[in-house]
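Predict both folds.
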Amino acid sequence: MSRFATTLLFLLALVPAAPAQSKDEVIYPRGSAPAGAPAPADSRGPGSGLILATALLAAVGGVWFWQKRRGSFRLGSAQTPRLAIVESRSLGSRQYLVVADYEGRKFLLGVCPGSIELLTPLDGGSPPPK
């Protein structure tokens, strides 16, 4: 069972069920009960548990949808990623050339199984010292 389904079942278990009413009990509108009538035990209507469960289900579903859409649950300001791989080319034998973009500046990287080296900046900067 997924974590979402487990959480949903737990939250639904917390919702109180509507109180069962006996067939002998008389329900009066608010403020119009006779003087000798007993006070109602619960002032909520019989459908309030269902309304609460529906609202809770909608809230949990909204959070789940928001998480799926954004990819993760993050509080605070959403930042755009500063590092991105723009393009990569295989040279064979697990060696690659990679163009990486960091804050708008592009770099050509050489990637091998044991190392990653900066070959040259692609924005007109000077090549790294050897």
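Second protein follows, with its predicted structure tokens after the sequence.
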Amino acid sequence: MAARTAITTLRFDPRIRYLADLAARIQRRNLTDFLEWAIEEALKTIPIKAGDNPYGDNDEPLYGDGPGTVVAGRKTVSTFDNSIAARSHELWDVDESDRFIKLATKFPHLLDFEEQQLWKRILESPLSQTKDGKLDVKLVRKHWAKFNSEAKG
């Protein structure tokens, strides 16, 4: 059975580390629980836009500088409605290949260079396509390890 949590090593400025520890004490949490809570709260305020252009096409809001509202064209929308937390169902999947496909198809501008290379390899591979040339998620899942090893060299 897989672990319920992932271990992550973080480096903090000593001042931030100390203040975060104090904040955790105030909330009667340990530092790990406090950091997880703080990240979850931040995810509610950071807007995310789908599409190829992060600057406001597809009737999606523009990136904002913080909480509040963001204007896209004639539309004003709450950043909460387009926050990473609110759209997490569009980003998260328990299966790594499905999670990658969600990111690559809905938020391609967030792919790093290695992920762009992997996505190109997947799109160009006959192992990921149906007979009519469409992407088949089940085939990508089946050949995920092969795509990854090829992309890494």
